[in-house]
Design a protein that fits this description.
Chain A has 33 helices and 35 strands. Chain A is an alpha/beta fold. The radius of gyration of chain A is 31 Å and the shape is globular. In chain B, helix 1 packs antiparallel against helix 5, helix 5 crosses helix 11 and helix 10 runs antiparallel to helix 11. Chain B is globular. The N and C termini of chain B lie far apart (54 Å). Classes of the chains: A alpha/beta (1022), B alpha/beta (476). The interface between A and B is large, with 98 and 87 residues.
Chain lengths: 1022, 476
């Protein structure tokens, strides 16, 4: 009797494999006969294992209780197979360690187990893709025919921030009311795919929601999701590693045909090179069993009943203070019912609609702002249906007694629903929430609110008010998004209801577990880990409440001042445990307003009322029945640029409106502000100055390609002129678009910031254009006013050429790279020497280089001079007229590359009539920032803080900081920005995956709080 | 926490010194060296303490004062210092925090300004921040600057050396804990010697050498079971994360538990690199024969002499385990990241990865904080280094304080190292070896047809005699 068992305990599911000797056939056969939990499988003919029986467990989810699940499965196994027949047990998988410790058995490394399983069943496989519940793996095998080595030559597993592919699809599917099994077929049915970012599940999640709200069908979204998962796998796990066929795709996700197709397409694999082994889900378990069978020095395993004892006893984990409601004021308990109008009577009413990602709220108020009706619905990815259902409910209950005098919409679906419903005003969520909260204070006769914590499904906001004016606010940067839905998903994962039960459990915990306070994806893993370590349910739930509060405070509020009248609103405020956590962490009283989930919608009703007061026209409200409304939609692809955005056209009663992705240039809606800029378009002016540098190509001259990236945006006049003067033709790569960005992302090794990735794409394009040389200067620092502090470029700028030339697809062209090392800081004489030495390598004489350099400096000086002159004029104009303006601060390649910043700088001007002044138009050398930071050794940092410092002297100039995720220096520079400016600024971080909708919301809220959108009183879609 | 039960303070600090009457706190970076630096300060009359061992509260407090986008080490350092603030009896008026700094281009140099800002915001603007830098002749240290610099160097060399010995012994010890015990004992001994030893510099050095000899004997007394099959893994990367066992989740100890030996780059290497960097900068601006250059050379001369004296007892112990000279590292890194155009640790990481490969290591691990700019540059270069050096497995491990399955990743990593071991082209302990790595220059020499086109374009060509390598740099 010698059965060896392998257990693969993942984050989501449990798999078991049992391998016996031929003699065990009868026992194992009996097991399969009697127990439905197991089935038998066969080893392949070749390989010497053909005669050995193999038993596998059916797919089983562990629901967060690995010990219990393992115990039950083993118990079931032992009920039919005598315990002494089992020779050994070996575990693998992320949850394996705990079980191994209890049973005193060995743990097998997951990669090794998988490799072993595949080597036995599919020895021809050279590359393995695995997608499991919460992790993904890439493995490359080069096994020798003989020998015990598995021949693993390379591996990769999902990076910290891309974890959770399997459960992610799971969550999204259930969000769309699909079961996980239906995702594959649905995705295969879809005619096209909605574009969804795949780098991090939080981004993907919000993209899906935007896609839903743009009217994509669920099939298309699911297909987009599968594509995103495949793309994510390719870019963040395989990352340019060789994919040598045949490729085996294993793990639970291999069941999903949609992902299979997407992967095959993403890697351009032939059908026969991409196989899904029959035992795709049991490779790890099987490998562990086989390893155990080969083991000569076996560790005797202890009785499996130890597992039962273990699950009963609690174990030590770090814990915080118990939650208490002592310092929480729930106004919802004090609200008095407003009398509804009597039948036959018709009153003036206003409708507010907040279409969020998770929930859609509709409210009706009377002219005084008293709430007549609130409807809180889950959006469930179907905003149009949900709104139409809500409107029908209102009509059925109150329709006969209401005269709708005005409608306002807000939330991420505000534009679509605004158009459909006929909104009189469309506002960003922050303005809506502020208006609603102020109203609650008046009604309840409490001190005016000075701080609002708003936690919705996907967005978190922090609003700071002084006498009813927004003085500061923050929104979650994308990586902390979705706090509300995070709690919901976690509750679901733990098998408890978010309504009531969550808070009740959490408040009952005496020892709340200390969980991480980072982005939701990590928190999810922390919960799993603690769960795996055996933390109690109530303690975990209480810990989650703390986590959400801490995460919000540390990542959204950060070092901002919290006041004394703190409102906690949004859907998450229904959860008393979170309110308790806030009060305990801050040591301050937390007020939860009545109707806390619909404050934004109430605010919109009030804004609609105010708007209609001045409008002197009837409301555009189209009536309660959206189905009576004639609207059609049509998908098409915009070919205005090479981005090929998926567009959607809605035809509502003869009026067209468009929704598209990143730019929507061609189909741009009318300006949403009546404000007109009073200054020239400086960004365009700058582009024209650059164009002027370029001379037309002449004959048979050698071509120097300059990538339109990084250094280009700062010093093109210099480098362009230098090489033209040397007698070269200068070729600049085309502007950044989706194609360039995608190719760059694919090429870049490691994961540098987005602009560096984009630069890779530009270099690739130049290589394809067959230029003779590609310029990638190794520029160390910049010219700077005299000071002791250096003026470095960041390490990624400095090393760009060296990083670029080792990219495998580019490497063979490395001798076409021109890499002059220059220290601009050391003065022009010095640069002259450096470039002379560089030119020598090109066999160009020093005299020629010096002459070209003189011209280059002249061109750069002329360019800078022209910029500064234009800036001075603009600044004078604004000073005299008192018109407000926005200074854009940031690195040149973030400010001016439209493909990087979603063209937000231009949209600020076009949509809102903002006077936009990029910081390079300002004379910054005179600003002294030593008080703010005495060691700002980055050139960009010094200039950014100097620009902020300059803005301090101009009350009518505000700051928008354009940055990118992963920008190292900016992570510090931005923390000094407010100190330098003495006023709050807007920080926008781009990463190329974002579409512009979220950025537009932030901009609107900022502009509104700065008074840009005040005249007329709000933004209108007129 | 404190290894020191008493606080011996002699009176070398003048009343005008910014440190006079202050309690100085040092955040722990590497095992041993921070304690030694505290001892140096105490020797010079400053009441100095290291912060208690980092724990979850460190991260809790650290994340309150950072946004999460900064480097992970900053979070750990700030968290440790804020923990000191919250200790009962803490007196902000008497406190000073020691935080080293640089002038870029990596983010490390921002720790001090950022600490200053968060202290101000937290209501402690009075806490003195000591960030000695050569920019102002180490003014933060006042009259003890010169003495401190020399003693600190001795402290670093001594603690680095016993840590090397620890890593060399621990994987083979037959009694678990014996090597750690020897390390702690030696550290206490060294700290006491550093603090209390004789006033004359020469005599002080001799007593340190004696203490080092005692340390050597402690390690030599540990029974070991040598195993030639233990793979050797070079550990490079960001200095703080690589050396701080809390930040890197004790990666080296875990590596050892999987049956590997680690060769870790210590602090002294960084100091030699900054010396070299300073000399290069001076050369660059044509100050080859300047007072600063003389200063740099003299400093290095003293440093080398002190190092030799302190290392003398260990000649046999480190036989075949020679640490590379920084010039050699820079040279090996040159084809990938030429030091003429790349500033910072990635030069060392790349050069050392090549050095380790060349000297027969079975793998290289890079430890860096999550989103570390230098780490990501190195990560982009490593595949090329690996291709050039027989396919040695080089891996980045990033840390940001979140839980990850480090054990799993190390387990599989060692699988790669063992696979490589079977086919590796470089044997261990083989004396000096020179490979001529692939040369990549700032511009390739033009081909004949290119030359023709250059001529046609009116570009005058130079004769071969004028052809000089850019690498030789720019001369006056």
């Amino acid at each position: 009797m010698s059965i060896n068992v392998g257990l693969d305990i993942g984050a989501v599911s449990l798999k078991m494999a049992a391998v016996g000797n031929p003699a065990d056939e009868i026992v194992l056969h009996a097991l399969v006969e009697k127990s439905g939990a197991f089935f038998s499988a066969l080893f392949p003919k070749a390989g010497g294992l053909a005669d050995r029986p193999l038993i596998l467990s059916r797919y089983q989810r562990i629901q967060g209780t690995p010990v219990e699940a393992a115990y039950l499965l083993l118990k079931e196994f032992i009920a039919h197979v005598p315990e002494q027949a089992i020779e050994g047990i070996r575990v693998t998988g992320s949850g394996g360690r705990l079980i191994a410790r209890i049973l005193g058995i060995s743990v097998e490394n997951e990669f090794r187990a998988v490799a072993k399983g595949l080597r036995t069943l599919c020895p021809e496989v050279r590359t393995v893709f695995e997608m499991g519940g919460e992790s993904s793996k890439y493995l490359r095998l080069e096994p020798k025919d003989t020998g015990k080595r598995l021949g693993i030559v390379d591996y990769q597993s999902s990076a910290e921030c891309a974890a959770g592919t399997g459960s992610f699809i799971d969550q999204q599917a259930s969000r769309l009311l699909y079961s996980i099994e239906e995702v594959g077929p649905a995705a295969c049915r879809a005619s096209c795919a909605a574009r969804i970012a795949g780098r991090c599940s939080v981004f993907a999640k919000s993209d899906m929601i935007h896609a839903q709200q743009k009217g994509y069908k669920t099939d298309q979204i699911l297909r987009g999701l599968c594509d995103a998962v495949a793309r994510n796998f390719k870019s963040s796990i395989v990352r340019g590693r060789p994919v040598i066929p045949p490729v085996a795709f294993i793990g639970a996700v291999a069941l999903n045909q949609g992902v299979c197709n997407a992967l095959r397409e993403a890697f351009k694999l032939k059908e026969e090179d991409f196989l899904i082994p029959e035992l795709f889900n049991w490779m790890g378990a099987l490998g562990a069993a086989l390893f155990e069978a080969e083991e000569r020095r076996k560790r005797p395993f202890k009785s499996i009943h130890l597992l039962e004892e273990e699950k009963a006893t609690g174990r030590e984990f770090a814990c915080g203070h118990p939650l208490s409601m002592a310092n929480v004021l729930l106004l919802r308990n004090q609200v008095k019912q407003v009398d509804l109008p009597s039948p036959g009577q018709r009153i003036e009413a206003y409708l507010g609609i907040d279409v969020g990602s998770v929930s859609t709220n509709l409210v009706v108020t009377d002219a005084e702002g008293n709430l007549l009706k609130e409807i809180y619905l889950y959006t469930e990815g179907r905003p149009i249906e949900v709104v139409s259902r809500g409107l029908k409910t209102i009509e059925a209950e109150l329709g006969s007694s209401l005269d709708i005098h005005g409608v306002g919409t807000t939330g991420s679906g505000r534009e679509l629903i605004g158009e459909l419903v006929g909104a009189d005003t469309v506002n960003d969520e922050i303005t809506a929430h502020k208006t609603g909260a102020m109203h609650v204070c008046q009604q309840n006769r409490i001190e005016p609110v000075d701080t609002i914590f708003e936690i919705g499904g996907q967005d978190s906001k922090f609003i700071s008010l002084e006498k009813g004016v927004v003085v500061d606010f923050a929104m979650n940067e994308a990586c902390a998004a979705g706090t509300g839905s995070f709690l919901e998903e976690q509750a679901e994962k733990l098998g408890i209801s978010i309504k009531g039960q969550f808070a009740q459990l959490a408040l009952s915990s005496a020892r709340p577990a200390q969980l991480g306070e980072r982005c939701t994806v990590f928190m999810e893993r922390d919960v799993t880990a603690l769960r795996l370590r055996g933390a109690g349910l109530a303690d975990l739930v209480a810990g989650l409440a703390y986590s959400v509060a801490l995460n919000y405070l540390n990542r959204v509020v950060r070092d901002r001042k919290t006041g004394n009248v703190i409102f906690f609103q949004g859907g998450t405020a229904y959860n008393d445990a979170v309110a308790a956590a806030f009060s305990q962490i801050l040591g301050k009283r937390i007020i939860v307003p009545p109707h806390n989930g619909v404050i934004g919608a109430i605010g919109m009703a009030l804004l609609a009322r105010d708007r209609m007061r001045d409008a002197r026209r009837p409301s555009r409200f189209r009536g309660y029945d959206l189905s009576r409304l004639q609207f059609t939609s049509r998908d098409f692809v915009c070919h205005a640029c090479s981005n090929y955005c998926d567009m959607k056209e809605f035809l509502v009663e003869g009026e067209r409106s468009y929704w598209g992705d990143q730019c929507s240039d061609k189909f741009r809606k009318r300006s949403v502000s009546d404000r007109k800029p009073v200054i020239n378009d400086l960004i365009e002016y700058r582009e024209r100055l650059f164009e002027k540098v370029l001379v037309p190509p002449g004959g048979d001259r050698l071509k120097v390609g300059i990538p339109r990236a990084m250094f280009y945006y700062e010093s093109f006049p210099f480098w362009g002129t230098y090489f033209q003067e040397l007698g070269f033709d200068v070729v600049v790569s085309s502007p950044t678009d989706r194609r360039v960005a995608v190719s760059g992302e694919e090429l870049a090794i490691a994961q540098p910031c987005f602009p560096v990735q984009v630069a890779h794409g530009h270099v690739r394009e130049l290589l394809d254009q067959k230029v003779d040389y590609i310029l990638l200067p190794n520029a160390i620092n910049a010219e700077a006013p005299d000071s002791e502090i250096p003026s470095h470029f960041c390490p990624w700028n400095q090393t760009l050429p060296f990083v670029m030339r080792v990219v495998p697809q580019i490497e063979q062209a490395h001798n076409r790279f021109l890499i002059p090392t220059v220290h601009f800081r050391s003065g022009r004489k010095f640069v002259e020497k450096e470039l002379a030495a560089f030119a020598e390598r090109l066999l160009i004489s020093r005299r020629q280089s010096d002459r070209a350099l003189m011209a280059a400096y002249a061109a750069q000086d002329e360019f800078v001079g022209a910029s500064l002159a234009a800036g001075e004029k603009v600044l004078d104009g604004l000073r005299q007229s008192g018109e407000p303006g926005v200074i854009l601060v940031g690195r040149a390649y973030n400010l001016y590359d439209r493909g990087v910043n979603c063209d937000i700088p231009r949209k600020l001007r076009l949509l809102y009539g903002v006077n936009v002044i990029p910081m390079d138009f300002l004379s910054l050398d005179g600003e002294d920032i030593t008080e703010v930071n005495s060691n700002m050794y980055w050139n960009s940092g010094r200039r950014i803080l100097a620009a902020a410092h300059l803005a301090r002297r101009f009350p009518n100039l505000h700051l928008v900081y354009i940055s990118n995720f992963k920008c190292g220096p900016d992570s510090y520079i931005k923390s000094f920005l407010n100190d330098a400016a003495g006023k709050p600024s807007l920080v926008l971080q781009f990463d190329g995956h974002s579409n512009d909708a979220g950025f537009i919301t932030r901009c609107e809220a900022y502009l509104d709080s700065k008074g840009f959108l005040r005249c007329p009183s709000s933004t209108a879609v007129m | 926490m404190p290894i020191f039960h008493r606080c011996h303070v002699s009176n070398q600090v003048e009343s005008s010194n910014p440190l006079a009457g202050k309690k100085l706190y040092l955040a722990v970076m590497a095992e041993g060296s921070s304690e030694m630096l505290a001892a140096v300060f105490r020797r010079l009359g400053v009441e100095a303490y290291v912060t208690p061992r980092s724990d979850s509260r460190t991260l809790e407090l650290g994340s309150k004062v950072t946004s999460g986008d900064e480097c992970y080490p900053a979070k750990v350092v700030l968290g440790d210092l804020f923990r000191v603030i919250q200790e009962p009896g803490f007196d902000p008026a008497r406190a000073a925090f020691f935080i080293p700094t640089t002038d870029g281009p990596c983010r490390f140099g921002q720790y001090a300004p950022s600490l200053k800002k968060v202290l101000r915001q937290a209501g402690y603007p009075q806490i003195e921040i000591i960030s000695p830098t050569d920019k102002n002749g180490y003014a933060d240290l006042g009259n003890i600057a010169d003495k401190f610099m020399r003693l600190a160097w001795r402290a670093v060399v001594a603690s680095d050396t016993i840590h090397r010995l620890l890593l060399k012994t621990r994987p083979y010890e037959t009694t678990p804990g014996a090597a750690d015990h020897a390390f702690q004992e030696s550290l206490t001994d060294l700290c006491e010697t550093m603090e209390a030893g004789c006033d004359d510099p020469g005599c002080h050095l001799r007593s340190l050498v004696k203490s080092m000899t005692r340390a050597r004997d402690r390690f030599r007394a540990i029974p070991i079971c040598d195993d030639p099959d233990v793979p050797l893994i070079g550990v490079v990367g960001e200095i703080f994360c690589r050396l701080n066992t809390f930040s890197n989740e004790d990666l080296i100890r875990r590596l050892e538990s999987y049956g590997a030996q680690a060769s870790l780059s210590h602090i002294s290497e960084w100091i030699y690199y900054t010396n070299e960097e300073q000399r290069r900068r001076l050369r660059l601006v044509g100050r080859t024969f300047s007072l600063e250059m003389l200063g740099a050379n003299v400093r290095e001369h003293f440093q080398e002499a002190d190092e030799q004296a302190l290392l003398a007892p260990f000649r046999e112990d480190f036989e075949g385990h020679d640490e590379p000279r920084v010039e050699e590292i820079i040279k090996l890194a040159w084809p990938y990241l030429p030091a003429s155009g790349v500033l910072g640790e990635m030069v060392l990481s790349i050069g050392l990865a090549a050095y380790h490969a060349l000297h027969g290591a079975d793998g290289v691990i890079d430890i860096s904080p999550f989103t570390c700019m230098n780490g990501i540059v190195s990560e982009a270069i490593y595949p090329k280094v690996s291709r050039d050096y027989g396919g040695i497995p080089i891996r980045n491990f990033y840390f940001d304080g979140t839980q990850s399955d480090l054990d799993r990743d190390l387990g599989i990593y060692l699988e790669l190292a063992r696979s490589y071991r079977e086919k590796k082209p470089f044997r261990r302990h083989c004396g000096d070896r020179q490979v001529e790595p692939i040369r990549m220059e700032s511009a390739a020499r033009p081909t004949v047809s290119t030359k023709r086109r250059l001529k046609r374009a009116g570009i005058r060509l130079l004769g071969r005699s004028r052809y000089r390598s850019v690498r030789r740099g720019i001369r006056r």
